[in-house]
Amino acid sequence: MLFSTLVVVLLVPVLASELAQQEAGEGSTEDLLLTEGQLYDPDQPFFDFEESANVTALLGKTAILNCRVKNIGNRTVSWIRHRDIHLLTVGRFTYTSDERFSSRHSAGSDDWLLMIHYLQERDGGMYECQISTTPPQSHLIHLSVVEPETVIIGGPDVYINTGSRLALTCSVKYSPEPPAFIFWYHDDKLVSYERTRGGVVVSTEKGLVTTSRLLVQFAETRHTGLYTCSPANSEPKSVNVHVIAGDQPAAIVHENGGAGVLALLSLPLFLALFSLTLPPLLLS
């Protein structure tokens, strides 16, 4: 009995010590866990992933890739083009003969910028931001090089009858930012946005896809011609509008801006076209 009591007395402090160490170890692991699932040492640098995101930039413009590194200490940050493992920058120094690439960093800042001027399509792809730890820490950022596209729904020709509603819809897609303005031209003349009855009304909605709508409530023959949608940051797009005089509509333009469809012809013209399809014996 005395031996059993002695064993318990000796084991309790040992077990208590091991349990305390285990709890301390679990707590320190939790403290090291970032929201992105990255484990780090408080004395080591780490990436701020939310501020080091993928980038979309316009063809021919300047792309700015940001790599935010916390607690960098005396380490340096390098940028590497991933497709050919080409070293572009180390710290604030550039190591490429392509003068379109440059590095930007302000003293005391956590941001290390890679700037690419006069963007080309081949510049798109993965870029690696690397911290000079042992072993090195890396974070990949994807650059997308896009060219905005202008689309007029219903082109290239739209047919309507006099007195009908003319509605043209122009959309600008694949633009990192909405165009500063969108101008409409009628036969190379800037459209005057009249808000009187029978005039032209233009409305623009900016967003991921910017949409501009040109509306003529009661179309007249003078509204026939070439209409061009010209955004500030994209190539212009044109559509031919044919306003046909007469009581019968030559075509229907959908209110949603869908393609003009030849829907109804005048009766004499229909009979003339129909007669051309009949066999000669039936016509004799």
What does this structure look like?
With 284 residues, the chain is of the alpha+beta class. The chain is 15% helix and 37% strand. The model is unreliable at 1-36 and 249-271 (pLDDT under 50).
Helix/strand layout:
Blueprint: H1 2-31, E1 46-47, E2 55-58, E3 63-70, E4 77-81, E5 86-90, E6 93-94, E7 101-104, E8 111-116, E9 125-131, E10 137-146, E11 149-153, E12 157-161, E13 166-173, E14 182-186, E15 189-190, E16 200-205, E17 210-216, E18 225-231, E19 237-244, H2 267-276, H3 280-283
Parallel strand pairs: 2-10, 12-19
Antiparallel strand pairs: 1-3, 3-8, 4-5, 4-9, 5-6, 7-8, 9-10, 11-13, 13-17, 14-15, 14-18, 16-17, 18-19
Q: Short description, anyone?
A:
This protein has three helices and 19 strands.
Count of DSSP-assigned helices: 3
Mean pLDDT equals 78
Classification by helices and strands? alpha+beta
Stretches where pLDDT falls below 50 for ≥5 residues? 1-36, 249-271
Keywords:
284 residues, alpha+beta, 6-stranded mixed beta sheet, 5-stranded mixed beta sheet, 3 helices, 19 strands, 15% helix
